[in-house]
Amino acid sequence: MTVRALEGTAPEEAYAGPPPTVRPAADQPVPGPPRQEAPAEQPEPAPPTPYLLAMRTVGWAWWRPVAGFALIAFLLAVGFVLTRIADLLTGTGADLDPVPLTWRGLLVTGLLLALALPAVLLAWPLVHGVGPGRGLSVAGRLRWPLLGRSTVLALATVGVAVALGVAGAVLLAGREVPGPVPELPWVLVVGLLTAPLRAAGEELLFRGYLSQAVAGWIGRPRVGAAVAALVSAVLWAALYGTDDLAGFVGRVALGLAASAVVLLTGGIEAAVALHAVCGVVVLVLGAVLGEGAVPGLVPGGPGAVFVLVAALGLAAFVGLVARRGTRS
């Protein structure tokens, strides 16, 4: 291409911006920004299944609790036979009667009742096909902070009430104080070691598996909880005998309070703490002052007054647990 041809080419025009737009008519709608659709609302999470109805969520069948009780009874029967053999060979005197307080009797009896703990934990996977956590709490595990806090509350309420009841029985009613039991240090050591295990086993069996089975059979939360509380309290109290009416009523009251805190917290932690504190306080007072000084160990004397004072402590404990709930 020649230079002349290049000179004849029109020069490029400079950019003058976008072309002007026409003003829309008065009756013509002006398009706005694209409308954004509101995000879809997330459904609220379903509330957790109540603790007492846990069996209803894992392939419920009426016969499963029956099979579970059969397994638990078999394991406890094996432990009972071993206890009888140990009693015959060593003369430990191991039975559910708390008197006399001996470290050998406390050891064998405490371990026998503590056997309910692994028995119930085995019943869940073998009979219900799930882990044992459902028998502990709605969280599927043992909530240690709640257990520790409940122990402090139980000591400040029920522990103090039981001590005041014993003091009133000794000072105001002239109840006999025989003095420390033989082998006091060993009795205290063995008692303090086995009492919490014994309480955990009994609560897991009565306020845990038994209450969950009764509530599962009924299927209605409120009615099931009420019936389960009454059944578990009466059966547990009857386990220790019905000869002493005041002692029987006191144990029923303790069982009802334990069922109340199970319902409030959705687990057995507060019930275990309550049971363990009552057992330890009665044990220590009975070992130091003598079995005859504690109405909870030996019938007779101001048993009704002792039960009344202890009931006030139980009511205070339940009230504090209801106020704080499951907060750590």
Automatic annotation (TrEMBL):
InterPro entries: Rce1/LyrA-like_dom. Keywords: Hydrolase, Membrane, Transmembrane, Transmembrane helix. GO terms for molecular function: hydrolase activity. Its EC number is 3.4.-.-. This is CPBP family intramembrane glutamic endopeptidase. Residues 186-279 form the CAAX prenyl protease 2/Lysostaphin resistance protein A-like domain. The chain crosses the membrane at residues 66-86, 106-131, 152-172, 184-201, 222-239, 245-264, 271-290, 302-322. Residues 1-47 are annotated as: Disordered. The keyword Membrane applies. It comes from the Bacteria. It comes from Blastococcus goldschmidtiae. It is an enzyme of class 3 (hydrolase). Residues 30-47 have a biased composition (Pro residues).
